[in-house]
Amino acid sequence: MGFVGSLIDRDQLQELVARGAQLVEVLPADEYREDHLPGAMSIPLRQLNRETAATLDAQRAVIVYCWDMA
Amino acid sequence: MAPRAAARLETLGFGEVHEYKAGKLDWMAAGLPTEGTNSLHPRAGDAARKDVPVCSLTERLGDVRDRVKAAGWDAALVVDGDRVVLGLLRSKELAKDADMRIEQAMRPAPSTFRPYVSLHEMAHFMEEHNLESSPVTTSDGKLVGLLYRADAVRLGMPPK
Q1: Exposed, middle or buried, A54 (CB in 10 Å: 0-12/13-18/19+)?
Q2: Contact flag A3-B3 (C-beta cutoff 8 Å)
Q3: Which of B22, B43, B115, B157 has the least C-beta neighbours within 10 A?
Q4: What is the CATH number of domain A10-65?
């Protein structure tokens, strides 16, 4: 089964982050270094695995994003 | 890319995963702050003058001109109730017949720029296209401010 989480907009993102959600940019690391959302951590999609995901807290909400909706 | 990351996280046992669908582009186009090496360089949204006068479509040009001049400006933006930019009044438009409605006098649908564009890039573009000023808006068309070429050049092309 594919992704069953929710799609959120900018306002919802800010509300969730204020409530403690973790923000993860999944673009390549060089793009993260240039610009990322405040407080976001970098886990490029190709490096997303059990080990890198262990840097996140599975008990808290996670928000993932890339460049745009494409 | 983000949908696949979200799906992968769910397979790894994460119970609450959200996808910010519009992504970093949407965030930056809204003029919100970022972190990273690019955030150290000035952008269009930083230098755009936020206190530019605004007016509505139905106002009388003479009234707007008086207000704009009294405030020490030579330009104004025409916006709707949500501050979406509908038109631009530069010196040429402000000099038209005082009894005209703004809707008739304005330069409609001006080109706009996003707040995340670097001032260096803006300075080059405005010089190449001889633009004295350009509105800066969010991706949904809301006014951030008016960027003057002089400001873009001064801050985006520092002397060597």
Answers
A1: exposed
A2: yes
A3: B157
A4: 3.40.250.10
